[in-house]
Predict the structure.
Amino acid sequence: MSYIKKSLAQTGANATTELAIPTLLTVDGKAGWSILGMDIYVSGLGAAVNAVADGQCLIELNTEATPQSYDDPDNIIFHQFQFSGITASTTALQVFGGEQVRLILPRLTVQPTLYLNISSSGLLTAVTANIQIVYEIVKLSDIEVMRLMQGGA
């Protein structure tokens, strides 16, 4: 099992921000990543809860640039933090900024670049996503590589 750690800070409050992550996979390498999951820690959500009515923060791992919808085949991991802040009532919902997302079925990819996206709404401050992608390197045949490249995975 292998992992790669990255950190991605929004450029401003509620700004969608993206980070390209090179996998170093090549078509002739006959290998791919079997993505098992992602560990996420989002810093800054605690302060946001005290300042807003409602908020959400979305973290995505994709095989294609720009955020994707949940049902898009290029979307690998889609995780969202949603909360009601203190200005919506007298009490706020507790928000834990850390999550472990494990895929029931690992996602196989041969893409040379993966894309990490962070976007939010309702927040008055920018947040930072610290992530760790957990994966295994698997050997593939030429046909398997070509099928995955054609299918967008």
